[in-house]
């Protein structure tokens, strides 16, 4: 278990105190990008306005203004921040806005497909697409949204950006396949979980941030910082999401809690708990398929410091994201990105 102990030791250098001592601005990240987010949401619905009425209704179902718009927010703020760094202006180019649109469309298409795979009944507090229209149509509408996003990507006419964002789709598929498998060795299990988390969640944010940096003509160092900021925010976001599956209520989350366990998935709180309660390893290997396994796993997590260690790991990624911003020129967008890195730790849904 040396790998886990080393990881926990490293986490303790990134405590909550570290985050709170960083410069905190009285700034609302969403307000900093509100006009651009509104434009993107409206434009996505226009792009999905097909003459087939049922397909249009399904495609626009999650673009109803009720989503978090977390990914386009980060992409837009990153575009503003690097544009200020490069050219002393926070005006976002049309191509950078289009990347934010593509990011949200890829994310939403992946949610629709995930809900089919997971047989989920609710999403954002309402019936899932497949629950309302059936699995076959849900798969098709997810494919349709991806196809429209691919057309928008081609319109950018930038070969490097096309490669960057195409990597996201490959990562999503590979991450889903990784989620279907499991590792026998505990250390392999945690590495497997982290790699899967990057591919399923962090890759989209990281590569979208990288794409707007490329479109902003940034040098290699700034482009890499943009990528790593997105990577760390994505990892922190998913770790908190996995934590909330054990600590939040279904009415708050807008989707069933303990969902991962019921799907046979061992996330960070469970993997950390298994270090203290070896009995969990057998449950993990059989993917919590026996009657009472889910409840037993939850009880082991509750008796362990698995949730606490998961929070520490999320804090480490948040602190790393903040550190990466320090080389950028000061701006409201940079401050907003720093604030996002702390807000992601305080989310409750």
TrEMBL record:
For the keyword Mitochondrion, the answer is yes
> Could you tell me the superkingdom of the organism this chain comes from?
Eukaryota
Question: What are the required cofactors?
Answer: Mg(2+)
Give the location in the cell.
Mitochondrion
The protein's Enzyme Commission number: 2.5.1.91
Q: Which Gene3D superfamilies match?
A: Farnesyl Diphosphate Synthase (1.10.600.10)
Alphabetical list of SUPFAM superfamilies matching this protein: Terpenoid synthases
Q: Report the record's Gene Ontology biological process terms.
A: isoprenoid biosynthetic process; ubiquinone biosynthetic process
Q: Which keywords accompany this UniProt record?
A: Isoprene biosynthesis, Lipid metabolism, Magnesium, Metal-binding, Mitochondrion, Transferase
Question: What cellular component terms from Gene Ontology apply here?
Answer: heterotetrameric polyprenyl diphosphate synthase complex
Q: What is its main location?
A: mitochondrion
Catalytic reaction equation(s): 7 isopentenyl diphosphate + (2E,6E)-farnesyl diphosphate = all-trans-decaprenyl diphosphate + 7 diphosphate; 6 isopentenyl diphosphate + (2E,6E)-farnesyl diphosphate = all-trans-nonaprenyl diphosphate + 6 diphosphate
Any idea which GO molecular function terms this record carries?
Answer: all-trans-decaprenyl-diphosphate synthase activity; metal ion binding
Q: Which CDD domains match?
A: Trans_IPPS_HT
Q: How does it assemble?
A: Heterotetramer composed of 2 PDSS1/DPS1 and 2 PDSS2/DLP1 subunits.
What is the purpose of this protein?
Heterotetrameric enzyme that catalyzes the condensation of farnesyl diphosphate (FPP), which acts as a primer, and isopentenyl diphosphate (IPP) to produce prenyl diphosphates of varying chain lengths and participates in the determination of the side chain of ubiquinone. Supplies nona and decaprenyl diphosphate, the precursors for the side chain of the isoprenoid quinones ubiquinone-9 (Q9)and ubiquinone-10 (Q10) respectively. The enzyme adds isopentenyl diphosphate molecules sequentially to farnesyl diphosphate with trans stereochemistry.
Protein family (similarity comment): Belongs to the FPP/GGPP synthase family.
What is the protein name for this chain? All trans-polyprenyl-diphosphate synthase PDSS1
């Amino acid at each position: 278990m040396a790998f886990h102990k080393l990881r926990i030791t490293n986490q303790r250098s990134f405590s909550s105190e570290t985050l709170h001592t960083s410069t905190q601005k009285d700034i609302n990240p969403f307000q900093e990008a509100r006009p651009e987010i509104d434009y993107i949401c409206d434009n996505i619905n226009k792009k999905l306005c097909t003459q087939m009425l049922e397909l249009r209704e399904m495609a626009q179902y999650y673009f109803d203004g009720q989503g978090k718009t977390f990914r386009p927010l980060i992409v837009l703020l990153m575009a503003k921040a690097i544009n200020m760094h490069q050219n002393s202006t926070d005006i976002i180019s049309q191509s950078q806005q289009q990347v934010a649109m593509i990011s949200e469309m890829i994310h939403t298409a992946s949610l629709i497909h995930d809900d089919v795979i997971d047989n989920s009944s609710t999403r954002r507090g309402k019936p899932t697409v497949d629950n309302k229209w059936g699995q076959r149509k849900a798969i098709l509408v997810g494919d349709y949204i991806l196809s429209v996003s691919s057309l928008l990507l081609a319109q950018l006419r930038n070969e490097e950006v096309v490669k960057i964002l195409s990597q996201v789709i490959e990562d999503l598929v590979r991450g889903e396949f990784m989620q279907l498998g499991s590792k026998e060795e505990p250390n392999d299990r945690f590495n497997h979980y982290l790699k899967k988390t990057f591919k399923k969640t962090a890759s989209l944010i990281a590569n979208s941030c990288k794409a707007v940096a490329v479109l902003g003509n940034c040098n290699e160092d700034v482009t890499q910082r943009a990528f790593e900021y997105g990577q760390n925010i994505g990892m922190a976001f998913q770790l908190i999401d996995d934590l909330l599956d054990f600590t939040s209520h279904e009415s708050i989350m807008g989707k069933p809690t303990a969902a991962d366990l019921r799907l046979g998935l061992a996330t960070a709180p469970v993997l950390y708990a298994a270090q203290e309660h070896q009995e969990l390893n057998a449950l993990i290997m059989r993917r919590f398929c026996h009657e009472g396994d889910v409840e037993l796993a939850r009880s082991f997590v509750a008796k362990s410091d698995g949730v606490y260690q998961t929070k520490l790991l999320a804090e480490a990624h948040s602190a790393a994201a903040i550190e990466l911003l320090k080389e950028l020129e000061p701006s409201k967008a940079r401050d907003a990105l720093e604030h996002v890195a702390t807000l992601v730790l305080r989310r409750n849904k």
